[in-house]
Design brief:
Its cofactor is heme. The chain is of the alpha+beta class. The protein is built from 31 helices and 48 strands. 51% of the residues are buried.
Length: 1123
């Protein structure tokens, strides 16, 4: 039995372990994608899959179909305006709203009707239960999603009114930008899983709108996986170089070194004109100040009479110093979207060129209906020196180019929502935000290496739906260590906001203090949050007990896979103020699920709501934790999961076993939390075996030559000792060797899902990185699709069949007068002439053919040589030969392109290949080389095996002659064979199949496990190589009776495409040219058996497997023509 190891760092060793937990059963949530029943308005009811989402829908509300089950909801007005509020209809369903409680930040709100929906709602999730079971607590709910989006120059939001009506607000933010029709204002979708529903909806919107990208497609900044420190709450604006060094040193000395730093507000050169006229508080001074230089302020300058050891002369010197002394990997600095809170000074010498203009922000009615914000109040009072939009690209490029020159890696960009208040006269809020966001992301891409930006104070949909590249966004109001009422709301807000934001960005949970009464509460939240982890401790003020549960000794962190979000049973409860609900946040690690549970009640209240007595007096709450709380658990549970889980309880240090449907009771006091690591229990152990010698393992023994119609001593010995599946160490990797037909078939059928092609790197060096034999995933699919198309076009064409037969006749005619031939040489000559004609349109007597053949023979010798790249070795010569072949092929390509309009086609194959647009030139060259390799070596070997085995089986040879005489009897003299003749060669097919079974051209293939795989009682660990040995199945007496006997008649009763016969591989990597090899072999045999008798010469009767198959003497034959 294997238990996947938990990866949460909130673990203690040597805890007590319980064999079983208390078993209780609860409902299992059903995972599903969106349901394909489109919403419609019928009889003034917006009905979605037989559920009434809205009633009394006004006549001016319209539905525009989108994809699958989704639609856009819109409205029309008789008048144009820059702001409209439309009634959508009465809503009486349980809901979760994410709304902006002030201009900068979102929080959740739950309710039961339209009147509860707050102004500035940016996401609305409705719970829809079947009417007949609406009271049943265990009924499976479905979900309806409303996403107000951007519609042209207008931004949408939702709100409710006292009549339980849901309302739509659309606004441009500029009186000059007016409209009366909005057909794509609200996206509506429906599904059984809230998380699938959100994911699929964002994918649809991404494609439809084209203004943003979803998280999973974005480049993730490297700092996410390293522990960090931000200077803000440590110093606020009083940050200094010495303070930074002190903070980094104290963290490093304590064993949790910071590997990235954010130098927050306080490093820039700013000025406030108003401080001359009135006495301003420090905070008001900050929000009214303007940027007067893009360069660092004098706190970082080297001052006169100061020791060189105490100060630096520029930001770059300081950055280099802290990198060197503290091993920092990433240095970020803070700046506001508009340069600084108050903008960029209009008249300062260094900033005048940006043509800033003093503008006074105008908030929307929606913002004014919610809470005021002091920073916004200051900016409204003092105005913002707004950079000319035509200069914003220049400003960002200047700023970021300067920072990059100072060895800074990236930026945290704050105050982003300010643009929605400055749109008047500038094209409106949506257009202005788009312009600034595009300029910002373009500058980040141009000046920094790692998509190095953290967005902040940008939670309006103007910014969110223009987030094309940015991958991290702050997901809540600031962490406020001195505000006791905000500790719980901070955690709850991020978790709920991540439902929406997490599909577009990695939600940033902000910094926290490690030495604080709520430190563990915040630390646990970040452990399950899937976010970057950084603190803002004052120097020397750390709790290393907390930090060492989050941070590894090298400064790295183990980040969970997804954004942490509330479990389904928490979605429509208020975890902060209902006095009864706990908050559960789920996530996945590589091998386990992780669940954080928090008591957020009794320690705070949501902005705009007042606490009640029940909430404030609650001391301890109880809830339930279940493996079923973890979404997407099937991603880690594998296909042989027993259904049980091992649950590690962090607080108690105990281990409990439960079925997925079971649950545990949990009780937590105010501001208490716990972490549960939930691992699927799966039976399976790695197969028996031995790893052999260090480094080499058992590779040399495995590759020891043996007769190709035998297993060889290595496989015989290991199978007898360990069974048909065993472990070893081969090709410098731990390896599972499979001689089992069921496992081999399982491996082949699960290509790119559980297993992946994984040939040794030296093979890549010879074949090239674009070879179809070594590429994986989508690249292989593209190449194989082209191969199948070309084979399908080629195989039955008369020209191709005539070329095969003509070449066979020519080769056999050259035998006249000879007593002996080396058949392998003759077969290779035949196959090369056929394939070079079909692929490149070249005949044997052309100079290019001779050149390619010389290089190709060098290439083939190196392919099977020891992979040592030293000038003069066969391997090195093969790599050089491949380069020369590639150049020749490219020259043929160019010549064909030039002569397309003037010369007759020489090869349909090449014409089709050149017309394929989704392959690069290198891929086309590799494709040609792969075709030459397959058509030359493997086909000639198949022919040699058939001839050798037929020479030892007179009965089979006689029946083959009879079949071909019968076919020839229906043909005119010198009439060529056709496809119908080939289909009549039934016994020939049996001969070919039996030659493949006995000869085993492909002994095994290389694969590796992409994840832990359980098959029957075996575990195949992730990353291990696995070798399905086809020859072992072909020579298994339990599957093929009399395995050492060449007996073509066996194929009259058994399938030539079964699990126990895989000469051409199987699954998505089944050889696309297999039929061509059979056609060439059959046509050659046709003329051989009708025109010659032969017998082998010498004692070398069987080819050897190295593991490639080779006749040591080239299969010499004594030949006699049949007169």
């Amino acid at each position: 039995m294997l238990l996947n190891a938990p990866t949460s760092l909130f673990l203690y060793p040597n805890r007590r372990i319980f064999s079983n937990g208390c078993l209780r059963v609860q409902k299992t949530w059903k995972q599903s994608m969106c349901i394909s029943t489109k919403p419609v308005i019928d009889d003034r009811i917006l009905r979605i899959s037989d559920k009434d989402a809205l009633t009394a829908v006004p006549e001016n509300i319209v539905v525009t179909p989108s994809t699958n089950a989704s639609v856009f909801l819109g409205a029309t007005s008789s008048e144009k305006s820059c702001r409209h509020v439309f009634k959508l209809g009465v809503m009486e369903l349980r809901f979760l709203s994410l709304f902006r409680f002030n201009i900068w930040w979102m929080i959740p709100r739950v309710g039961n009707s339209g009147s509860d929906v707050p102004v500035e709602t940016q996401m609305l999730l409705l719970e829809a239960r079947e009417e007949q079971v609406v009271s049943a607590s265990n009924a499976s709910p479905s979900y309806i999603l409303f996403l107000p989006v951007l519609d042209g120059d207008f931004r949408s939001s939702l709100q409710g009114n006292s009549a339980n009506e849901l309302e739509l607000c659309v606004e441009s933010g500029d009186p000059a930008i007016v409209a009366s029709q909005f057909l794509n204002a609200v996206f509506v979708n429906y599904g059984n899983s809230p998380f699938d529903l959100m994911k699929e909806s964002m994918k649809i919107l991404e494609k439809h709108k084209g203004t943003f990208s979803i998280r999973e497609t974005k480049k993730m900044p490297g700092m996410l996986d390293w522990f960090g420190w931000c200077t803000w709450d440590a110093f606020y604006t009083e940050v200094t170089p010495q303070g930074i060094k002190d903070g980094l040193k104290s963290l490093s000395d304590g064993g949790t070194p910071a590997k990235f730093i954010i130098i927050d507000d306080g490093w820039q050169e700013t000025y406030n004109d108003l401080q001359k006229e009135e006495e301003l508080s420090p905070v008001a001074l900050q929000f009214g100040s303007r940027l007067i230089s893009i360069k660092v302020n004098n706190k970082f300058w080297k001052k006169k009479n100061e020791s060189p050891n105490e100060a630096t002369n520029d930001l770059k010197d300081f950055v280099i110093e802290i990198r060197r002394d503290f091993g920092l990997k990433y240095v970020y600095v803070w700046h506001a979207l508009m340069g600084y809170w108050g903008g960029v000074h209009t008249d300062a010498p260094e900033t005048k060129k940006y043509n800033s203009q003093l503008r006074y922000p105008l908030q929307s009615q929606g913002n004014l209906a919610n809470m005021r914000d002091f920073a916004m109040d200051c900016m409204e009072k003092y105005g913002v020196d707004t950079i000319d939009p035509s200069k914003i690209s220049e400003f960002y490029d200047d700023l970021h180019k300067y920072l990059a020159s100072q060895d800074v890696d990236g930026v945290k960009v704050d105050v982003q929502n300010i643009l929605e208040t400055l749109g008047t006269g500038l094209g409106g809020r949506v257009s202005l935000t788009k312009q600034f966001q595009q300029a910002l992301e373009k500058s980040i891409a141009a000046n920094f290496q790692d998509n190095s930006i953290i967005c902040c104070m940008g939670q309006n949909t103007d910014s969110i739906y223009n987030c094309k590249r940015s991958a991290i966004t702050r997901a809540s109001d600031d962490y406020q260590p001195r505000n006791q009422t905000s500790q719980t709301t901070h955690v709850a807000a991020v978790a709920f906001n991540s439902i929406f934001l997490g599909e577009i960005v990695v939600p940033d949970w902000d910094m926290f203090y490690s030495r604080h009464y709520a430190a563990e509460f915040h630390a646990v939240a970040r452990a399950v949050g899937g976010c970057g982890i950084y603190v803002s401790d004052k120097p020397g003020q750390h709790d290393f007990t907390v930090l060492k549960r989050l941070v590894l000794p090298d400064g790295s962190v183990l980040r969970a896979k997804y954004p942490g979000r509330p479990s389904r049973d928490c979605l429509f409860n208020d975890p902060v103020m209902d006095g009864k609900s706990l908050l559960k946040i789920w996530n996945l690690n590589k091998f386990s699920g992780v669940l954080g549970i928090f008591n957020c009640q009794g320690a705070g209240s949501w902005p705009g709501l007042h606490s009640n007595v029940e909430n404030s007096t609650c001391s301890e709450l109880s809830g339930r934790v279940s493996p079923a709380d973890i979404e997407y658990f099937e991603e880690i549970s594998g296909e042989t999961w027993t259904g049980d889980c091992a649950i590690f309880l962090f607080n108690s240090g105990s281990l409990v076993r439960l079925p997925k449907e079971g649950y545990l009771d949990v009780s937590l006091g105010v501001l208490q939390c716990d972490v549960f690591t939930i691992s699927p229990i799966m039976f399976g152990v790695t197969p028996k075996g031995t790893f052999g010698w260090p480094l080499l393992g058992e590779t040399l023994s495995f590759l020891r030559p043996h007769s190709s119609n035998s297993l060889g001593t290595f496989l015989q010995d290991h199978c007898s000792r360990y069974g048909k599946v065993f472990k070893s160490h081969l090709f410098c990797s731990p390896t599972i060797v499979s001689c089992d037909q069921e496992l081999n078939y399982f491996i082949l059928q699960n290509e790119d899902r559980l297993f992946q092609c994984s040939y040794p790197k030296p093979i890549h060096g010879v074949l090239g990185k674009s070879s179809m034999l070594v590429v994986v995933g989508d690249t292989h699919k593209r190449l194989r699709s082209v191969a199948l198309s070309l084979v399908s076009t080629t195989k039955s064409k008369p020209d191709y069949l005539n070329d095969i037969e003509g070449t066979a006749i020519q080769i056999l005619h050259s035998w006249r007068g000879k007593q002996q031939v080396i058949f392998c040489d003759e077969a290779r000559k035949f196959t090369f002439n056929v394939i070079i004609k079909q692929v490149l349109g070249l005949t044997p007597d052309e100079p290019q053919t001779t050149k390619i053949l010389e290089d190709f023979l060098t290439f083939m010798r190196g392919l099977i040589s020891f992979p040592l790249y030293i000038p003069g070795t066969p391997y090195a010569r093969a790599v050089q030969a491949r380069t020369r072949i590639s150049s020749t092929i490219k020259a043929i390509f160019e010549e064909r392109k030039r002569n397309r309009g003037y010369s007759k086609r020489k090869s349909d194959f090449l014409e089709i290949l050149l017309s394929v647009n989704n392959l690069s030139e290198d891929e086309k060259v590799s494709f040609v080389l792969d075709s030459l390799l397959g058509g030359y070596e493997t086909t000639s070997l198949l022919m040699a095996l058939a001839v050798q085995f037929l020479g030892q089986s007179p009965a089979a040879l006689q029946q083959l002659k009879l079949e071909h005489r019968s076919i020839r009897s229906f043909k005119q003299r010198d009439e060529y064979l056709n496809w119908e003749d080939y289909k009549k060669m039934e016994f020939t097919q049996n001969v070919i199949s039996e030659a493949l079974r006995c000869g085993n051209i492909v002994k095994f293939v290389h694969r590796k496990a992409l994840k832990d795989v359980r098959f029957k009682d075996y575990l195949i660990p992730s990353g291990w190589k696995i070798l399905p040995v086809f020859s072992a199945v072909h020579l298994d007496p339990s599957l093929h009776g009399s395995t050492l006997e060449f007996h073509p008649w066996r194929w009259e009763k058994q399938s030539q495409t079964s699990k126990k016969f895989t000469p051409f591989g199987g699954g998505p990597r089944f050889c696309p040219g297999s039929e061509l090899a059979k056609v060439e072999t059959a046509f050659f045999l046709h003329h051989l058996v009708l025109n010659f008798r032969w017998r082998t010469v010498g004692v070398d009767q069987h080819p050897l497997a190295y593991p490639y198959v080779e006749f040591q003497s080239g299969l010499p034959l004594r030949v006699d023509p049949i007169l």
